[in-house]
Amino acid sequence: MRTILSLDGGGLRGVIALGLLSQLEERLGGGPLASRFDLIGGTSTGAVIATGLALGLPVPEILRFYTDLAPQVFRRTGFRLPGIHALFDEEPMEAHIRDICGDRTLETSDLATHLALFVKRLDTDSVWTVTNNPAAPFWDDPPDGSYIGNRHYLLADLVRAATAAPHYFEPEPIPVARDDHGIFIDAGVTPYNNPALALLQLVAMPAQGFGWPLRAGQLRIVSVGTGAYRNQQSPDRLMSMTSGTLALNALLSSVRHGGQMIDDMLRLLGRDVRDGTAFLPDPLFEVLRLDVRLEREWLKRELGMTLSDRVLNRLRRMDDTTLPDVAWEIGARAGERILSDMAPGEVLPWA
Question: What are the CA-CA distances from residue 49 to residues 39, 213, 232, 252, 257 (Å)?
Fold first, then answer.
């Protein structure tokens, strides 16, 4: 059976995903998750985690990037006007990403499994799926030298581009051809914020160089989120917002709804590992979704955690550095609850 690990975007809510992954790692007997999956892919913060996992790092070491280093990255410095300047200086982020990635390129042998990263090229209005699969399109330099083959791309540049969320960080220029740069941003502002369906397309379409069979029993997707919620607001508050704030709210809402639609599509096309339900008589794959709801009633009912509205609102933000312990606990408790009634062989059949 082929296995895919899909990691959503969500900024510093990636700590929730790491909490979930800690339980997955434990359930599978410890050891690097890269040895358990044939493909690990992610968007935004999911790209950071995916790269660390594919390099063989354990979950606690990746967590350190968020708990120890994030306060340095998500710190406003200098004179920055929201709407005119990015909120944060990208240099600390770049430095920390290079600490993880070094000068490795996409073809490095240090990647212990297939890796897929999603970035948006802003100047051509296209979403790029970049993988370390030598059979993928654009892997090698073409004979006419019209572009730089993906194999030469620096991992650090790709991960930095994946974290370049508009409003928060400046875009990342990456050389794509001789004397030409593409301008890349976080693909989290697209429907690819939940990359599970895009990863399915990647492995199923022969032109992408994988050509894996689509059939339950031969393909399993483990999809990990960073916390879902409905951002309910009073009509009076919405009507008092500036047009820019209202537009940002609408964009973030669209990202959340897009992720939910992808979850629904996975359940429609596949068979849920937890309860065996399937809508199709012959499901195309098996799927296990690991996520939480950042809503007071759900957290109390499912995890026994009582959180104030103030704490919940801070957890929902992508740039809040004050609650990593709470975010980790939410993810770890949820992961334990979801996986507690599943044997390792049910999570991944060959575990």
Answer: 13, 27, 29, 21, 23
Tokens of 310: 């103030």
Residue 120 bridge partners (DSSP): 127, 185
* Positive/negative CA dihedral, 202, 206, 212, 216: positive
Count the neighbouring beta carbons within 10 Å of the beta carbon of residue 53. Answer: 27
CA distances for 69 relative to 15, 97, 242, angstroms: 13, 10, 33
The CA angle 200-283-213, to the nearest 5 degrees, is 50
Distance separating alpha carbons of residues 212 and 73, to the nearest angstrom: 39
List pLDDT tens digits, range 8-38. 999 899 999 999 999 999 999 888 999 999 9
Query: 139-180 pLDDT, tens per residue?
Result: 999 999 999 999 999 999 999 999 888 767 788 999 999 889
Query: CA dist 74 to 27, 70, 162, 321, Å?
Result: 32, 6, 16, 7
> Quick check: pTM over 0.70?
yes
Q: How many Cβ atoms from other residues are within 10 Å of residue 179's Cβ?
A: 5
Provide the sign of the torsion angle of the four alpha carbons 200, 202, 205, 211, taken in this order.
negative
Q: Which are the contacts of 177, defined by CB distance < 8 A and separation ≥ 6?
A: 145, 146, 147, 148
Phi, then psi, of 49 in degrees rounded to 5: -65, -45
Pair of tokens at residue 8: 């959503």
